[in-house]
Amino acid sequence: MSRAWLAVLAAVVVLPLTVRHAIATEIWIFAIFGLGLNLLLGYTGLLSFGQSTFFGSAAYVAGYLLKQYAINVFVALAIGVVVGAVSAALVGYLCVQRSGLYFIMLTFALNQMFYFIAYQWTTVTGGEDGMPGIGRPALLGVDFRNPLAYYVFVAALFLLSLWIMKRIVESPLGKILQAIRENDVRAEAVGYDVPSFKLLAFIIGGGFSGLAGVLYAMLFGIVPLEAIGFVFSGNVVFATLIGGSGSLYGPIIGSFVFIWLSESVSVVWERWPLLLGVAFVIVVLFFRGGCVEAWARFWSWRERRRALEGIAQ
Amino acid sequence: MLYALMGLGLSLITGVLNIPNFAHGALFAVGAYFLFSAIHVVGNFWLALVLAPVGVALLGLAIEYAGIRPLYAAGHDYQLLFTFGLSLILGEGIIVVWGPIGFSQLPPSILRGGLDLGFIFYPKYRLFVMVMAGLLVLSTWLFLEKTRYGAIMRAGIENKEMVSLLGIDIHRLFTAAFALGAYLAGIAGALTAPIRGLSPSMGVDMLGIAFVVVALGGLGNLLGAIAAGLIIGVAQAVVALYWTEASVAVIFAVMAAILLVRPQGLFGIR
Lengths: 313, 270
What we know:
The complex is a heterodimer of chains A (313) and B (270).
Chain A: H1 3-18, H2 21-44, H3 52-69, H4 73-95, H5 100-120, H6 122-125, E1 131-132, H7 147-170, H8 172-182, H9 184-190, H10 194-220, E2 222-223, H11 230-243, H12 250-268, H13 272-286, H14 290-312
Antiparallel strand pairs in A: 1-2
Helix pairs in contact in A: 2-7, 2-10, 2-11, 2-12, 3-4, 3-10, 4-5, 4-10, 7-8, 8-9, 8-10, 11-12, 12-13
Chain B: H1 2-17, H2 24-42, H3 45-68, H4 76-98, E1 114-116, E2 121-123, H5 124-146, H6 148-158, H7 160-165, H8 170-196, H9 202-217, H10 222-242, H11 247-261
Antiparallel strand pairs in B: 1-2
Helix pairs in contact in B: 1-5, 1-6, 1-8, 1-9, 1-10, 2-3, 2-4, 2-8, 2-9, 3-8, 5-6, 5-8, 9-10, 9-11, 10-11
């Protein structure tokens, strides 16, 4: 077991002791969402700006079934993964043909399409008011209405997701995706069907997003319209980039920072997305490379100051 | 016609600067709100209609100079995050300055009421907007096609290295293109205000449509953007007659259908 895994496990144990259970749970849900995006962004080099399409679709479908038929939790999660993967297959099929700016714009535009469907289909989704009344059915005698029990459940699923994602990126498939990121022309020339592999990455990422979506719906008992909106897609990109998209653990750090940041500014001011926007701009202009780089820079700045003080004396 | 205007501005920005401009919708909304305030300050619709887009263009100038210029080498992910952050700032800024409740804006008194065209009774202001947007698209087109600056801009879309090798200040070109794109977004917003009123969410709604127009028209293909804008506008109007709720979703469905058949967009070559 590596140090990174130990750190993650320690965080899983310590987190519910330090922050509210709901926030702790949200952090891991967002981390699962980030893991899915990172397979695209960090490993395949595809900047998808429409991840909330899969997150929101899964949340709506599974949430609707939970509400109407009170289905089993695992069935709901499985449905969420399938819905996430299928919607990702549909969107991905249209998008993987293109690259660069086109790709980004298409993922965004299709995200908007799903958003407007959810917005107008008020009889099912509740439109702007969201879809409330989603329960957390008990499983094997464990009552998930207890926040700590639900936290443990989500954290366990997160660890499982992380393990699966680790296996994926270290598998031959993961290496092919990285080859596509580095040089897709060469990957094509070596004989890999690049669009198919991109689509596969999309579907896997969509499955993870779907899982996160269902967990999110059960956490808050509601699917808000924002869950399928483009701001949500932007947030997960931000979280992944701020954590460092190059590494498997980057989105986890990013999820911490993002949820903590948004929770703390949202109590300060009602118009907190403004502050969030400012944070985006500051990060992009001054801290490209994410937390890891900012940390390194801070250390080198301290070293230099020490050296200067040494000279002064 | 307004979609064509938005698409043209966005196509110019994406084509020349090669960045995903997620703040384009916010610039559109800012244009509408600038018009609203300018009318209150100067008390004249026509003067406000001139001033508001210029204000947006200046804002665009500042944004490009201070924010986007350091990011050309940074990759699309950071450019996206920056323009996305910017659209949050502008969108929320509108709420802070003008409040979360929308406004309605009356057209100037000569353009109120309708005009009997013989076969149909049509609001005068909408006719004015159509003519105005048409003239703007035409003049932008002539500017790009017939003037020296326009030629440089088109050359910038084709091959940036070559343009800068020929001794043209490429950064100034980028700034100018962004400001022009912002101007077009701003005037589209200003013209829309008396038709649809003002609301903080108007920018986001328009942003998706602008992206569709650009994706259909082909990236950096300015004529394609104009044509795609017209097609989308007509498609939406027709659907709105029969199934009002779906009229926005249909835009995206049309795009998806066309891209299935022609992945490069209607007029795209790349």
